[in-house]
Amino acid sequence: MTEEDTAEQMIPPHPPPPVSPIPRRRPKWYVMLMAVVGGLSLAALFVPAQWLGRITPGHSLVDDGAVALKPGSARPTAPRVTITDIDSFEPEGQILFTTVAIDDQVTVLEWIEAELDDTVELRTHEQVFGARTSTEQRERNLQLMQVSKDTAVVAALEYLGVEAVIESGVGFHDLVEGGPVEGLIEVGEIIVAINDEPVTGLDSLLDLLAAVEPGDPGVLTLENSDSGAVRTQAMTFGAHPDDGREGGFIGIADVTVRAVDAPLPFDLQIDSGAIGGPSAGLAFTLTLIDLLTEGELTGGHKVAVTGTISAGGAVGNIGGVAQKAVGARKAGAEIFIVPVDSVEPAQETAGDLRIVGVSTLQEALDALADIGGDVDGLTLDGHASGDS
């Protein structure tokens, strides 16, 4: 026997080919049942998350109706401002105002995604809308935007030295819960008189309140900021919640001073479209200053901004700053100016976007100076005091 013969004998014989089992056919009813179960499972992901509260009660977000705050947009403000009868200066840089997307129809799938996504914040319907419906909240936000635009114009012009601004009433962004006028007046109305005495600004409002006592009856004269319609509202003055404050209390919050019919030799219009809320106030103020003065207020950079503004230049807090930081970063902003109390939540989602906190208009301008903005000598020479 040769070595080749021996090697050949050592190779084990090939095993017989496997016998394929006869496939088991599922009954038609089983196939149909699995299809229905799969379809129902998929469909369940797209039903309102609130429905889960009927099955698994105890989760407040689900029980009350979940509302999701999602990253919104960051849009240039300059194209929304129209200035006539005065020279304006188109900027090379951009000031962006930021928004939050609010989803009040959260599905089970979106609820699950939100639990896994740090840029989406879930809140209850009451936390976002209070006792208002979605439609009512939308109308309120549009009113807040109108008040914010009026205040932005006043703040910008006052900073630029235009003394022709006439204070013509006091507005407000919110009402004190349980306060004397809750349910009687609405955001978007301007207080123009108390007990037939005119209210021109904050000082006159405080003087009139100091002249009454808690429990005294009173009458507010209110003007609708959109339609101009005037009405009166009877109320009873309350006691100020801060101890030591004498006089009457009406319970308005985030107060702003409105200026209308100012005899200016030029006209300013801001088109905010369908966007609501007061948080674009600081952005519009900076944009007006940029357009009305020579030089580059932003130093040619792209700057995102959020925060309310008062007529005196105080910057107020806003909501949804974490979501706004995402929108600002995606829009290519190099710096995001936010209210000082909003720095920490903004940094959580900002990535490498620089966050700067401010409490006044001057601090916002200082932040722009730090990146090369032209902020020195910002005045409207020849246009103060109504000069043409």
Estimate the strand proportion.
Answer: 15-25%
Category by helix and strand content: alpha+beta
Number of helices: 11
Helix content range: 25-40%
The assembly state of the depicted protein chains is single chain
Q: Please state the overall shape, judged from the principal axes of the Cα atoms.
A: globular
Give a short account of the largest sheet.
Answer: 6 strands, mixed
What is the CATH architecture assignment of the largest domain? 2-Layer Sandwich
Count the strands?
Answer: 18
Radius of gyration: 31 Å
CATH topology of the largest domain: Ribosomal Protein S5, domain 2
- Biggest sheet strand line-up: 4-1-3-14-17-18
- Please give the alpha-carbon distance between the first and last residues: 123 Å
Overall number of structural domains: 2
Low-confidence stretches: 1-12, 40-47, 53-58, 382-388
- Using the coordinates above, name the CATH class of the largest domain: Alpha Beta
Helices and strands, in order, run as HHHEEEHEHHEEEHEEEEEEHEEEHEHEH
Give the integer mean of the pLDDT values: 80
How would you describe this structure to a colleague?
The chain has 388 residues and is of the alpha+beta class. It has 2 domains: 71-101 and 136-163 and 264-386, Ribosomal Protein S5, domain 2; 167-259, Pdz3 Domain (Roll). 31% of the residues lie in helices and 24% in strands. The chain contains 11 helices and 18 strands. The strands form 6 sheets. The protein has a 6-stranded mixed sheet, with helices on both faces. Strands 7-6-8-9 form a 4-stranded antiparallel sheet, with helices on one face. The protein is globular. Residues 1-12, 40-47, 53-58 and 382-388 have low confidence and may be disordered.
